[in-house]
Amino acid sequence: MARPWRVAIVGGGITGLAAAVRLRDRAPAGTEITVYEQSGRLGGKLRTGELAGGPVEFGAESFLMRDPAGGESAVVTLLGRLGLTGAIVHPTVGQAALVVDGGLRPVPGGTLVGVPGDLDRVAAVAHPTAAADRDGGAPLLPPDADVSVGALVRDRLGDEVVDRLVDPMLGGVYAGRADDLSLVTTMPALARAARVEHTLVGAVRAAQAAAPRAPGAPVFGTLAGGLSTLVEAAARESGATIRRDAAVRELHRTPTGWRLTVGPTREPEFVEADAVLLAVPARPAARLLAGPAPEVAATVGGLDYASVALVTMALPEPELPELSGFLVPAGEGLLIKASTFFTTKWGHLRRPDGLALVRASVGRYGDETALQLTDDDLVATVHRELSKVLGAPLPAPVARHVQRWGGALPQYTPGHLGRVAAARAALRAAHPTLALAGAGYDGVGIPVCVRSGETAAEEIITALGGSAA
To answer: pLDDT averaged over the chain?
Structure first.
């Protein structure tokens, strides 16, 4: 009888853990799954901490409830598999604001990541150059083409729509600039519509119609126990062997599979595996691919990332607007690019003592000098800028936390998905038992990372099929 499969997953973030669960569910019984995490903590950018005696997210805050086609998102399905559906909670305040000319204005409705489907609804924030969005008799985007979001929107609706609406909304997600980010990767629904529609407003409306949302249906969710609950449950249900503080330094092909070099240089451990799933950021993945697949390594290693810092403060009874938070256009000259009023947005976090948890995000791609500030200076600057935007001095924080995420957010330039598809095709042809998964390839957000890990796990199962009894 053939021995069980041995699958190594490099990376213990939600991508790797989702892959481990899928392998446990669909690979043959007895499959040995090992997750190698170079740090001492699982979960990657999912990290629930504590501030002033209450839970708070120091990384990703929430997830989308629906997928682009309108069905439940991959993470919602995974939560059902893990028995956590009952822990899902939704925002109690959904209205956010934009900082415009130093003051707060509500984010207008009817947009797709800031791109308007109704020009009148954005007039309080930006003045579109509507005459430019004319029907030229052909689709906006040729087949298989990709452009930056900023280039398309500036051409059709003008600078103000990009600078005051699209750029801050994309910046809140990617810490990047609309003029650099791929339309196909960051806004796939709009890209699909743009291959058919002749105007940008028409494309936005078509994209919205293609994935209708039931009135009142929640867009976002999180877990009442914190997102680390998802991490813990996935690790447990996967039945995988979890190796923390286990850096995988090298990867080599063998006649029967793969050999991983794990641990410090002076005391390396050599591990044999039948298949390897790389669920780490692009540059660590490229280093591991350099030996077995140098051309793929060169492509993958070209992806750049933005670094950010998240500053969370516990404020005693501040006067906050009834908003979920606000976004800041780069032209406003503030260090803050976004802020979330946790205890306003999420009803389950509200405290009887009136203490409010407020988080601000700092750091934009290409302009990350602010991240060189000390924690104390970051907190002081964020506190000062929040007070300025809100128009009144905020009380001094009774507790604060600074979480720095170096190289956290991938920057997808035009053509990204095509490059990734070519890299994966080359890898599949030469090394079918070696797979790539994660935000660096498929997009940001918990549902995308879960789906990426699950898809890679399915590829591993297919590649190994027939080699197990």
So the answer is: 95
**The token pair that represents 160 in the structure block:** 């103000």
Taking the CB of residue 205, how many other CB atoms lie within 10 A of it? 18
Give 138-147 pLDDT, tens digit per residue. Answer: 999 999 999 9
Whole-angstrom distance, CA of residue 204 vs CA of residue 116: 7
Burial label, 423 (beta-carbon count in 10 A; 0-12, 13-18, 19+): buried
Show the DSSP H helices in 158-267 as ranges.
159-161, 167-174, 183-186, 188-194, 200-210, 228-238
Q: What is the mean pLDDT of residues 110-119?
A: 94
Q: Taken in order 248, 251, 257, 259, is the CA torsion positive or negative?
A: negative
Q: How high is the pLDDT of residue 468?
A: 40
Q: Once rounded to an integer, what is the mean pLDDT over residues 307-311?
A: 96
201 Cβ partners below 8 Å, 6+ apart? 116, 117, 118, 119, 133
The phi-psi region of residue 226 (left if phi > 0; otherwise alpha if psi is between -120 and 50; otherwise beta) is: left
- What mean pLDDT comes out for the span 259-285? 96
Q: Please check the confidence at residue 467 and state whether its pLDDT lies above 70.
A: no
316-329 burial code (b ≥16 CB/10 A, e <16): eebebbebbbbbbb
| 174 contacts 181 by C-beta, under 8 angstroms | yes
Q: How many residues does the chain have?
A: 469
Following DSSP, what letter does each residue of 277-335 receive, concatenated?
EE-S-HHHHHHHHTTT-HHHHHHHHT-EEEEEEEEEEEEES----SSSEEE--GGG--S
Closest CA to 273 of 317, 231, 299, 243: 243
**Contact (CB, 8 A) for 212 and 221:** no
**Cα radius of gyration rounded to whole Å, the chain:** 23
Confidence of residue 1 (pLDDT cuts 50, 70, 90): very low
